[in-house]
Amino acid sequence: MTEITSVEFEKEVLKSGKVILDFYSSECPPCEALAPKFESLAKLYGQDVKFLKIFRQKNRELADQLVVKSSPTLIFYDNGKEVGERLTGGIKRSDIIKNLNKLLPESKVATITGKIKPTISEFDVMILGAGPGGLTAGLYLCQAKVNTVLIDIALPGGHVATTHEVSNYPGFIEPQAGYMLSHNMSEQTKLCGTAYKVAVDVTSVDLKKREIVLDEYETVKAKKIIIATGTSPNLMGIPGEVELKGKGISYCATCDAKYYGDKEVVVIGGGNSAVEESDFISKFANKITMVHQFDAFTANKTAIERLNSNPKISALLQHEPRSFKRDGDKIITEVEDLQTKEIKTLVSDGVFIFIGMKPNVQLFKNKLTLDQWGYIKTDEDMRTSFPDVFAVGDVISKKYRQITTAVADGTIAAIAIAKELN
Ligand SMILES: Cc1cc2nc3c(=O)[nH]c(=O)nc-3n(C[C@H](O)[C@H](O)[C@H](O)COP(=O)(O)OP(=O)(O)OC[C@H]3O[C@@H](n4cnc5c(N)ncnc54)[C@H](O)[C@@H]3O)c2cc1C
Fold this sequence. Notes:
It is a single chain. Helix content is 29%, strand content 29%. It is an alpha/beta fold. The longest helix is centred in the last third of the chain and has 19 residues, at 403-421. The radius of gyration is 22 Å and the shape is globular. Bound molecules: flavin-adenine dinucleotide. Flavin-adenine dinucleotide binds at residues 128-134, 151-154, 158-160, 163, 166, 168, 202, 228-231, 273, 277, 360, 363, 393-394, 401-404, 406.
């Protein structure tokens, strides 16, 4: 694996054979989650495909020229021509493999995949998801001497890792950078001795056998499972969103706001996330237009007061986006005035969408009892409807989703499980 700069782009990429190029940034959790996958795949495919990394912040001109609008972005080249699909955001190992395999003849792919040897490991408890809920369960189980593994498709930290500032987690007088708070939580659990398998793809989950397969070859078994998979951002589901995701439309201010220095952005949403993240984006962008469907923001009063005193932020209330389009370097957002039905056009350099969350239950939703919104129902010890399967944090059915409530759920499940295993 080699690091290049824009000066070497022509020689190393355009005048080379098969290449995978990773545009990465600093302070970018999805970039950090990609790094170990990229490295392990470089070991497998490195003889046949050149693995290159390029630091987006220091090579902005090239990134702009190639319309790289999100970090990380993976681009595949065959003899100087871009091929296949660009991958951005939380990139799955299996999607990289799919693209790499398309670059190579079938016989070569068979030889490479033949080198992967299946493995099996066994634990008392496996925790799916290393956000605050999963990390706290891991800490309590470890301190109770229960052999535990934490599994995450990204790096540890969950939403806290991408929240720029947390001011309501008890024990800290000053607001904490979310990245540091989640780092400290993770280190505390890791130093205790909990095993970590992070930045992996979950290939399959068998709740009955309490067995999961990671990256298609690594089987992990346990006596108990804790589901702590949290939530993911809702999509708007309107024309242009999927096409422009990672190409001007972003769901992560921590990852992408720094690229909008002195530019204009549109933020969709009006709850706590939208209001707080707009304030953060205003550290970089010079104009932010927030689009919100109701006649007032639904965030907490402190956040709204801060927003109202920020001269860079203006609001279009009672408006809803109808479509996104690209026009050269600009993103065109068509919004409807919900009162007059008039369609207006907003021209910006980028769009951030914060319109709520959906629970990450795709892997187990037909096996567990869910509430009407799709969140997992639990009892007071965090037991789900499935024997030996617990759930904690934002993924469960409850009224308030905060770091403190996720941490509390993790504590309860761990104590209940430690007692049962004893
Ligand atoms: C922008 C934003 C700002 C916020 N600010 C605050 C705040 O200031 N104060 C506060 O108290 N709360 C805040 N919250 C809410 C808080 O972050 C959540 O309540 C908390 O993180 C929930 O923790 P969790 O462990 O349940 O889930 P998450 O933090 O969502 O973590 C879930 C983890 O599970 C992983 N995962 C997902 N699917 C799988 C799978 N199939 N297998 C394995 N792993 C999986 C994810 O990668 C992630 O690491 C904020 C949320 C957002 C989005």
